[in-house]
Amino acid sequence: MLIKKSPQTNIKSSEITPRHVFENRRKFMAGAGMAGLGAIAGGTLGAMSGLMMPGEASAATGLAPLSAMANDKYTLATIGEKMATDKVVASTYNNFYEFGTSKTDPAENATAFEPLPWTVTVDGAVENPGTYDFDDLINPHQLEDRVYRFRCVEAWSMVVPWVGIPLGDVIRRLGPTSKAKYVAFETLFDAERMSGQNRRPIPWPYVEGLRMDEAMHDLTLLTVGMYGETLPNQNGAPIRLIVPWKYGFKSIKSIVKISFVEEQPPCTWNIANAREYGFYSNVNPEVSHPRWSQAKERIVGTGLFADRRETEMMNGYANDVSSLYDGMDLSKYY
Ligand code: MTE
Asked: Which residue's CA is minimally distant from atom 10 of ligand 1?
């Protein structure tokens, strides 16, 4: 994809990341030498293995810097924001039940999780099924920096600079057949590696799904990083979905399986509680959750508990995606 550079709006994740984090990363990159710079020029997750001096990145944060191009359609400016959520906040206030059910559990319990090596199995109505190594799935594509609003069904929100590739580009390469009407996703189920799976607050494995046109939409991001670095374990390392116009639970983490299917696939929160959580789950301030209003959202990380903003239809992305739902009653298909 050709991405136009514009000095006004082309904000790199390095400009969003809190200064101390970026300074540390710069020091690290300077020490990484020529091999590392070659990997940066490559502009893919080759950077992940290529940049890391043995042990060095993991000794500091466990995260590796990624080289991505800013997509000027999706910047702080295009969503009318001045600042992204602080990285520390976005990586310590999490929902990832595989590592526990409180907001701080995932960051505490996922430290020992080793996301690599990783494979993703692709099956169903597709021309190129198989089990793909993480690098083989991602490396053919150019990584992009994209700043998105992120809105949880629990009525809180963040602004996060993600790093990823449009899911549609990967899907085109995999070659779904005409029978593929939906895409289903599955998270790793391994209770030895994900301690929260020793209990059953929700059924395992976590599963999610999108209609094919939703999966192909340019906004839908197969995400491998945030704030210019690889994903922290608690944010869904090494690979997750980000679907910014839907409630956060659609953005499934640590994906091990992608299936192309004919029928609408099951989704974890809908299985757990069909009265409260639907398949589409588009952010909609006019449709209350059965137990709370969705009209406003709490901005996480500002330090002000009372800091709220009006929730926008489809989380501010209605111009991009509302045509996908023409003729549908969105209060019925919640
Ligand atoms: N994916 C898996 N596998 N397990 C989960 O518990 N939680 C979802 C979603 N993806 C979840 C998941 C919910 S409810 C939200 S709001 C987001 O992840 C949170 O993403 P974050 O922790 O990166 O902010």
From this structure: 252
